[in-house]
Amino acid sequence: MSYTVVIVGRPNVGKSSLYNRLTGTEDAIVEPTSGVTRDRKYGVAEWAGKSFVVVDTGGIDDEGENGFEREINFQVGLAMDEASMVLFVVDGKEGLSSGDQLVAKRLRKLKCKIIVVCNKVDTSDKEGWINEFYQLGLGDEIFPISAVNGYGTGDLLEAMITEIPSEEEDESMLTRVAIVGRPNVGKSSLLNTLTDSRRSIVSEVAGTTRDSVDMTYNAFGNEVVLVDTAGLRKGKSYDDDIEFYGSIRTIKAIRSSDVCLLLIDAEEGLTRGDLAIFREITEANKGVVMLVNKWDLMEKDDKSVTTYTKALKEKLQPFSDIPIFFTSNVTRQRILKALERAIEVAENRKRKIATSELNEIMLPLIENNPPPVYKGKDIKIKYITQLPTRSPAIAFFCNTPQYVKAPYMRFLENKLRDNWDFSGIPVRLYFRQK
Ligand code: GDP
Fold first, then answer.
1. What is the pLDDT of residue 167?
2. Do residues 337 and 348 lie in contact, with contact meaning Cβ atoms separated by under 8 Å?
3. Residue to substitute in 182, 189, 263 for testing ligand 1 pocket (most ligand atoms within 8 angstroms of CB)
4. pLDDT at 40
5. Which residue, judged by its Cα, is nearest atom 20 of ligand 1?
6. Fewest C-beta atoms under 10 Å: which of 54, 174, 178, 213?
7. CB–CB of 11/60 below 8 Å?
8. Residue 245 above 80 pLDDT?
């Protein structure tokens, strides 16, 4: 599902460097949105076939003792709400400080796994630095690492990975639907529309973290799980950090879903923020159905839907084969249709095309329109098969896979989409040597 690792610790101990090392990035995946005053980042790390969300709680912008205390309370609060595991970073070079003691005291209340990471241990002769940190009384083992040069991070990752369940273990039979979008696009209202129109909520089941609640919902005779509906509720106030919380929630909900209902605001059109969420969904290989919400507020004529759809699809290129619905929570228009389509998308995402069928249909199309000759060489695709992955991935076996270029890949993808319904589903294409 969406195992979440939160990095906490005093300023300047190297939290961001560790974040960068775990996620393999220099930057946050999603740009900080306005209203997020602090530099906090979250992203996805992958290691040994497991993926998890990493959150860097970032730095302090308040000076003085009160600022420090506030910051620590924020970090620990965030860990309490979101973390499956906490990495508590301390500075080996500086040694144990009263600040560390304060963090440790707060962390002791947490029930999740806590790993103490002693940073700035660049070489093996400095490993003795870890010893004094055992006084913190957190965890049995302290990991000496250098986030900058990578020393010890392999061992740390190994230890982390053993704690993280593999995805199969979490797999539930029910389709998991996430309602995602920027603040104020109408996500909570959508949930209300859904639950008001059918009084058939079966139950609320505990989600991945204590604060997240998944809800089973009976739609068209199918039970589906609406992912992390707690994240939609208002009330909890984290001042300017609310959007940051929202973003973590979004990424977690996407990761633990099969299909996402992505809401955008009809009047605002597709914004950069919407596109960032869209990219999160496609990178996670989840299904997506787009809801152009608040459609009731638009002035329309008989061409509006066509024009809007066209403009939207242009912006979504190259992946624009997605179902789009023009919805309203006020008139309740097309909300149930969108959900119904999302369930179909989730079903289609599971489709396994028989190898014989795939070859029978695709090979003649390829023969009629072969890849362009490259460096004087004919490219021959001989055999096609779907890989046994959870979201569609198709392997094309050919003599010179490296010579198949993007335009031809798009041609193949379009042909796949013409012949099988992969609407709303990212399809990965692989080219391999026969
Ligand atoms: P969230 O932040 O995405 O959960 O957004 P909310 O559901 O809280 O909605 C934000 C605001 O938009 C509220 O004032 C809603 O009443 C309003 N709203 C939501 N959906 C619609 C809609 O379809 N049409 C109109 N006119 N207003 C809507």
1. 64
2. no
3. 189
4. 63
5. 186
6. 174
7. yes
8. no
